[in-house]
Amino acid sequence: xxxxxxxxxxxxxxxxxxxxxxxxxxxxxxxxxxxxxxxxxxxxxxxxxxxxxxxxxxxxxxxxxxxxxxxxxxxxxxxxxxxxxxxxxxxxxxxxxxxxxxxxxx
Length: 106
Known about the structure:
There is one protein chain. This protein is α+β, with helices and mostly antiparallel strands. About 40% of the residues lie in helices and about 20% in strands. A three-stranded antiparallel beta sheet has the order 1-2-3, with helices on one face. Strand 2 and strand 3 form a beta hairpin. Helix 1 runs antiparallel to helix 2, helix 1 crosses helix 3 and helix 2 packs across helix 3. The longest helix has 12 residues.
């Protein structure tokens, strides 16, 4: 059947709904509750989807915007985005100078 993948108990419609929920500003807990799955399942689909997006180190936009934000665990993260298109270039796990320099030297 096309409703459920082989050896899987979660329907493809629920999987798509989880992925759509991840693109919005919702917590993993609320996404899990809305879809009747565990938070671990939501995390697994996030990891599965994020593996498809690999960073490109070929070039950088002409104008960059930098900021920091408080993320999971109340830790500060570094975000870099295109100043004109407002697309995200990178999100780093911390705001330490060494981490930022290491990223841009790649």
